[in-house]
Amino acid sequence: MPTLTAEKLIIAFHKLSIFLNQPDEDFNRVTDSALNHNAWFQPEEVKRSLSSLQEMLQPGALEKWFEQISVTETPKKIGMILAGNIPMVGFHDILSVLATGNIAMIKLSSSDSKLLPILLKQLITFEPALAERIIFAERLKDFDAIIATGSNNSSRYFDYYFGKVPNIIRKNRNSIAVLDGKESTEEIALLGHDIFDYFGLGCRNVSKVYLPEGYEIKNFFEALETFQPIINHFKYNNNYDYNKSIFLVNGEPHFDNGFLLLKEDKGLSSPLAVLYFEYYKNIEELNQTLGGMQDQIQCIVSHADLKPESDVVSFGQSQHPQLWDYADNVNTVAFLNSL
């Protein structure tokens, strides 16, 4: 198997970033047709994901990331069960496996079976040695470790089947926002991206917002008006209509702006087209509450003084993770380097 070095990998990953800035016609044809296989993968959402990857793979970020990486000379086969909730959501895991010099044995999600193959095919053109380190498999076998992403339900099956090998098994997580009432209209509008990008389907999408007591819901809704066109997507609209009907039939109090339902609820995981909210008295008390929920939270959108600071991102930035922002706060590279 050809030798890979950090230098070669950094060059290949950055060349991919340059390509994503101006992809060719063949690549655009595949990405634009993704919605034929998954109606959530609208061209603008696929482009949003590609733009995020392009930002991630900048030279300075790659060099900083590779300072923490050892490229092994004895590659291990890493079985990978990928999610398909948002376009190319599994790419960072694949990147981590390749960056550490290992072999990615990939079981694609049926919801995202077209985009990753063409993305990785393009990467191989920049570093042909990677061709032997990328394997697509319908059934995983003869692997040395597993990275599996799924729901709380599927994680129990993953634990059963893969519990005897080194593994990262991910469950459901949600992201939240904390407002202190001092946010500008522009900041709330940016928060709209954290809520609505990818139709709210990602674990980094905000599914609940914590509001200070006495907060005016009207101010929140007014700042989100520019996202009204989301209701024109038939699947999103179906979810909005369904959840609105449930609330009305059950007599559940809620706010409604015509494309988002806001419901007071202690839960974190809101249904699609619904945003849960909860009032809080003070930041100190809220920090204590959130401290007991860390294993359920992916990231926190806020400018308030929250702990731990490492989980907090600025308004509009939840869908723009850095290379070192690992899902579930589990360092994938450290796991791979420990094998």
TrEMBL record:
It holds the Pfam family LuxC. SUPFAM superfamilies: ALDH-like (SSF53720). One of its GO terms (biological process) is bioluminescence. Signal peptide: none annotated. InterPro entries: Ald_DH/histidinol_DH, CoA_reduct_LuxC. The keyword NADP applies. The keyword NADP applies. Keywords: NADP. GO terms for molecular function: acyl-CoA dehydrogenase activity. This is Acyl-CoA reductase (LuxC).
